[in-house]
Amino acid sequence: MMYDPLLRLGLSLMSPAGAAGRLSIVIFHRIFETTDAIFPGDPDRRRFDELCGWLAAWFRVLPLDEAVRRLAAGSLPERALCITFDDGYADNHDLALPVLQSHGLTATFFIATGYLDGGRMWNDTIVESIKACRADSLDLSALGLPGIGRCPLATAADRRQLVHRLLGAAKYLQQPERQAMADRVAERSGVELPDHLMMTSAQVRAMAAAGMQIGAHTVSHPILARLDDVAARREIEQGRGQLQDIVGSPVTLFAYPNGKPGTDYLPRDVDLVRSLGFEAAVSTSSGAARHRSALAHELPRFTPWDATRLRFGLRMAANLRTG
User: Do the bridges between strand 60-61 and strand 80-87 make them parallel or antiparallel, or are there none, so unpaired?
Assistant: First the structure.
């Protein structure tokens, strides 16, 4: 911690107050109770508590809507930062919320409404199927995927590699094909899949009541770039409407599913989000937003996963140069 004053000074120089300010936005998805064998780089509760302590020590953490307005007005405080979560996992309520509250921090939670109250995302069907399979190998040759036949599951590394291969193969399929592939993997694995991974509507309301911000993330988390105009509008508009019914207040923030510009969403989708009256939208492009070049409906986000305090802080500082 002895280098914290120097790090804060460097962050202040790169992200000063006022019109020259830059807004950092960090992104999370899940917080695990303990380190997950499939995704060991994702934070567990202890690690998330550590990260929140670092962010609170180095940055001025703001609600996203306030930060967007102050960015546009050129009135950001120095070292401005926002915390966001995507998808709507139950651990956001059960694990992340208490940690955020213990540090006096706020965050924005972007929720895909089609999976609330017992739903399960297609990718989690694959992950949970491979994670819980009791066999030492799994024959997936019926999927017809190049290089995927009988797959070893003897070690955590085997399972992790298979999950990443399957997710990569399915990610950009059309939604019905993607779900069908996930269902076939589940059938072959022979496991009972969990139905409690995502938040309930009551948990979403509790998050909002606790002062967290709720943002839209479509209904079914599609690749918007693969949808026609009508379907894209329906996903965005219905997702927001369902959230507004749940929390009883306007939802003005949006996150593009997957979030890579040109690959996961198109300029059409940016125009659509703007025309529907969203105040701001976030992508998964790295970098920090600046006052003069800020595109409120394509704000960048970034989170380093460095293990040490110094390396994490230095990478956050490096990210301020991008954008």
Answer: parallel
Q: Which residues make beta-bridge pairs with 82?
A: 25
Q: Looking at residues 103-126, what average pLDDT do you find? A: 97
71 — phi, psi (to 5°)?
-60, -45
How far out from the chain centre does Cα 37 lie? 19
More confident residue, 145 or 308: 308
Tokens at residue 73, please?
């007005």
**Selection from 290, 229, 235, 279 nearest residue 254 by Cα:** 279
Q: Sorting pLDDT into bands at 50, 70 and 90, what band is 295?
A: confident
Angle at which helices 175-189 and 122-132 cross, to 10°: 20
Closest CA to 162 of 134, 195, 126, 135: 126
pTM tops 0.90, yes or no: yes
With tokens 């102050």, the residue in question is 70
Type of residue numbered 76: L
In whole angstroms, what is the distance from residue 1 CA to residue 8 CA? 11
User: DSSP string spanning 160-213?
Assistant: HHHHHHHHHHHTTS-HHHHHHHHHHHHHHHT-PPPS-SBPPHHHHHHHHHTT-E
Radius of gyration of the chain (CA): 20
Please state whether beta strands 280-282 and 253-255 pair in parallel, antiparallel, or not at all (unpaired): parallel
Q: Name 282's Cβ contacts closer than 8 Å, sequence gap at least 6.
A: 25, 27, 64, 84, 110, 253, 254, 255, 256, 259, 298, 299, 300, 301
Q: Where are the alpha helices (DSSP H) in the chain?
A: 4-14, 45-58, 64-73, 90-91, 97-102, 122-132, 156-170, 175-189, 201-209, 229-247, 267-275, 309-319
